[in-house]
Amino acid sequence: GEGIALFKNRIYLLTWQNETAWVYDAASLKEIRRIQYEGEGWGLASDGKSLLVSNGSPTIVFRDPESFTVRRKIHVRDGDRPVSRLNELEFVRGEIWANIYMEDIIARISPQTGRITGWIDLSALRSYLPANARVDVLNGIAYDEKKNRIFVTGKYWPHLFEIQLAH
Using H for helix, E for strand and C for coil, what is the string for the chain? Predict the structure, then answer.
């Protein structure tokens, strides 16, 4: 599994290369159905209306949660430069946050235009990881909307970090 998103009372789970999304009941965790889609699945989030899907390219696809059909696409750019390797996604305070695969940064993206509105450098978090730990890439973003908390982690990271942005 790659991306997971909660939409209404359902959990959606993407596969990386099998072009399949699983849908589960959030209360019972029973599988409701499987959906075939085209392309790789790198990240998944919900804005409350659509499911947002990344595949490592500069494009984020907005899909209908019921049919999984494409509603629209945005092309992510920093100025005139396309931004690729969009991986894990999270919808945070009206923005799309995407970690950039193989980098310790998160892009803040306008869901309307695809423009980068800012960057979050998380490279300092590595100093909190054990020196001898087998750790991999930054690869996890979670937003607790009720308590307005943001969490990040990485593959094989032994810690989950709560972060706050300085304004």
Answer: CCCEEEECCEEEEECCCCCEEEEEECCCCCEEEEEECCCCCCEEEECCCCEEEECCCCEEEEECCCCCCEEEEEECEECCEECCCEEEEEEECCEEEEEECCCCEEEEECCCCCEEEEEEECHHHHHHCCCCCCCCCEEEEEEECCCCEEEEEECCCCCCEEECCCC
Q: Whole-prediction pTM value?
A: 0.94
The pair phi, psi for residue 18, each rounded to 5°, is -85, 0
Q: Give 55-93 pLDDT, tens digit per residue.
A: 999 999 999 999 999 999 999 999 999 999 999 999 999
